[in-house]
Amino acid sequence: MQGFGAEYEHLILLVEGDPPWLLDVGHGDVFDNPMPLEDGHVQVESVGEFALRKVGDDWHLLRRSGGDSWMPQYRFTLKARLFRQFLSRVAWTQVAPLSAYRNRTIVYRSAGAGRLLLNTDTLTHLQAQHCSHRKVEKVDYLDVLSSVFGIELQDCTPVEVLLMPDGRKAMVEGV
């Protein structure tokens, strides 16, 4: 179906209760707070609004921000899955040339009224009505990791390797 990723591409958690609750621990512009699994539920978050829609046996998570149209984020079913069913997709994500995660460095954290995302050399602050971007120069990269994300890298891989395409492969190969 157009607008949705491959099966086993995303893992969400369903917590049983009355009502059941949906949790997403992924990065990016998804909801931070547990969401009741109810058809038509709309939840306002720091980066926009999220809605759940029941479509046949599937559930769809939709997102909009700043008055934009609802955009599909992913679809899911309530069918129980085994972790091993996700392994081939996880492997693809790590090694496939077309994987969004292979050729860049991604660091993410929730930041009160929004989210902070470092995507290779761009620091983005996501909020519901506003999104700002700032290019991070090589000389500032380790400082941004430390001051914005609390990540201290001492005696580590050179920044050039973190910023290069397929940098993780180079780290493993000892470049």
From TrEMBL:
It comes from the Bacteria. SUPFAM superfamilies: Cysteine proteinases (SSF54001). InterPro entries: Arylamine_N-AcTrfase, Arylamine_NAT_domain_sf, Papain-like_cys_pep_sf. Signal peptide: none annotated. It holds the Pfam family Acetyltransf_2. Belongs to the arylamine N-acetyltransferase family. This is Arylamine N-acetyltransferase.
